[in-house]
């Protein structure tokens, strides 16, 4: 019974955290979040891995934070190539997965969006 309970606890913890989901070479921000960029025919895709401490769980806050991360990366990337892009709201961004570690209360969100020039 004890082994079964230990195994269940490990599976529960593993299911609460997500690993980064990237489309290219990961770039770390000074806050410790990550994003990656991949060119497409008419623009580019940005994938982000965003983390934040949440005493009280709020998926919405995590989704908004991940959207801000990839929008900032997209804005900078487009500006470097002399282009501009429309920035989506969090409702339009694809949330690849998300989870919250029950021990550390860190929420991790993986999100992605394809920007058009």
From TrEMBL:
Source organism, top-level taxon: Bacteria
Protein's recorded name: Lipoprotein
